[in-house]
Amino acid sequence: MKVSLFITCMCDIFSSNVGKDTVEVLERVGCEVDFPEAQTCCGQPAYNSGYLENTKKTMKHMMKTFKDAEYVVGPSGSCVAMLREYETIFREDSEWAEEAKKLAEKSFELTQFLVDVMGVVDVGSTFKGKVTYHPSCHMTRLLGVKDAPRKLLESIQGVELVDLPQGEDCCGFGGTFSVKNSVISGEMVQEKVDHVVETEAEYLVGGDMACLMNIGGRLSREGRNVKVIHLAEILNHC
Questions:
Q1: Could you please report the per-residue DSSP string of 196-226?
Q2: What's the Cα-to-Cα distance from 167 to each of 32, 153, 190, 194, rounded to whole Å?
Q3: How far is CA 117 from CA 31, 72, 73, 161, 221, in A?
Q4: Residues contacting 212, CB < 8 A, separation 6+
Q5: Which helix (H) or strand (E) holds 88?
Q6: Residues 235, 151: contact at Cβ < 8 Å?
Q7: Which long-range contacts (CB under 8 A, 24 or more apart) does 95-99 make?
Q8: Phi/psi at 81 (nearest 5 deg)?
Q9: Of 52, 123, 145, 162, which sees the most CB atoms within 10 A?
Q10: So what's the pLDDT on residue 175?
C-alpha cells in the first residue's frame, strides 16, 4: 500500500522525530511511504482566523501536491481534519470540487489509517510505563477518531493505560483561541494538567503536537514529572 506522508507544520518545525516515527510505523506494517516535498501548511491557522479567500491559494497548492497520492497520512487529527474540510469549502467550485473531494476521501490521521484502513491494532510495540491519553478536540469532534488510538495503546506490551478524568475537555490551545483568549486558555490547560497529575501517570500521550506542547509546557513550568509523547513515538517504541 502506497502512502504519502503529510508531515504538518508542528511536526516539521518542532518535532521532526514524530515524522520519522510515523514513517517507520507505516513501513513496519507494510506501507511504501513517500514524502511530497512541495507540501506546505494545510491552511488551518489562516482559515480559522477568517481569511478564507486568502487561504484557498494554499489549499489549491496542497491539492496539487497530493493529487497523485494513493493515501495521505499525517500524525495529527487536527490537520487531517482540515484537509477533509476542503471538500465543504470547495463544494460550489466547479473547478476544484472534485479534487477537494478526492483529497478528503484519501486523507487519514495515523491511528485512523492503521485501524480503520489497514485493520491493524497491534504494530508490535513494547513500552514500559503508566500512560494516560489526551483525546484532542479536532481528532475526536471533527475527525471522529475516538477508538483507534485506544485500541493501539492497549495492544502495546508493557503499557499500563489509565483513564484521564474529563479527558475530552479541551486543553485550551485551540490554535488562535489560546492567543485571543489567553487567560481562559491558561485556566483550561491548568485544569487539564491537574487531571493528568491526578492519574499518577508517568506519560501523557496524544495525537496532536499543539496540544502536547501546550500541556507539556504547563507541566514543565509546574515541575511535574510527567513526560509528553506523541502516539507515533510510543507506537514506534520497541
A1: HHHHT-SEEEES-HHHHHHHHHHHHHTT---
A2: 34, 15, 13, 11
A3: 12, 12, 11, 24, 39
A4: 134, 204, 206, 228, 229, 230
A5: helix 77-89
A6: no
A7: 96/60, 96/63, 99/63, 99/67
A8: -60, -35
A9: 145
A10: 82
